[in-house]
Fold this sequence. Notes:
- By secondary structure, the protein is of the alpha/beta class.
- It has two domains: 1-34; 39-248, Rossmann fold, CATH 3.40.50.
- It is 31% helix and 32% strand.
- The protein has helices spanning 2-34, 96-110, 179-187, 190-198, 201-210; strands at 38-40, 60-67, 75-80, 86-92, 114-115, 120-135, 140-154, 159-174, 224-225, 228-229, 247-248.
- The protein starts with a helix and ends with a strand.
Amino acid sequence: MSSRTGIQGRAKHIMLLVRVVLLALVGIYVQGCAVIPDTVSFQYHSQTVPAPLPGAAQVVVQVGVTDVRPGDPRKISNKKNGYGMEMATIRTDRPVDHIVGDALAEELVKDGFQIGPGPVIVAAEVERFANDYKMGFFSSDAVAEVTIAIQVRTLDGRILYARTFSADGTETGVFLMEGHNARLSLEQTLPVIMSRLMTDPAFLRALLDGGSKPRRPLTGKAGPTAFGTADSMAGECLPITAHGSMSWV
């Protein structure tokens, strides 16, 4: 009897050691991954249904996006270790202004608008596009925050529409605070803003009004706007530029 008890005791001791070793290995793995930068491929999942508007097919829209966030134009978050300390950077595989510009263009095309050199401009400023991990007792949450300011204006600088949109999204039950979950939280947040924009009657009316009568491109400088001075956009779709300048779709 005592022999059996001894064997059982040793077995429990071995199992305990195995668990401790496994936990240690998991901790080492998590710590090791936390110091390695991560790059994620952002996918835009629209929430809107294609619904071409009467008259939209005759309107050509220029889409320009400026990322006004400081620092790396592809950064969206940081990994965190088990103590909640920020570690390696999480980036997208392309600049955030490109991501937002492509989303805007996709939504406008679904409503029947054309994208290209035209008399009406949709100018967007990305003020916030980030994920932060909030630690809980057993797991963490990936919390995304996105803020984008939108203007509709004409080539001569007249502002037809201006509004700032903010939204947040949460990916719950996160155990590894890495790029995958940061991407998921932001992928569910950007479509919310786009849906609010595309269902705003004032925004759609501004596009239709701005594109109803083609205007002759300016040869000089337009007046200052909330997004800076429009320097002779001249109806020509400019190429994608570096961070800090407006990117055109």
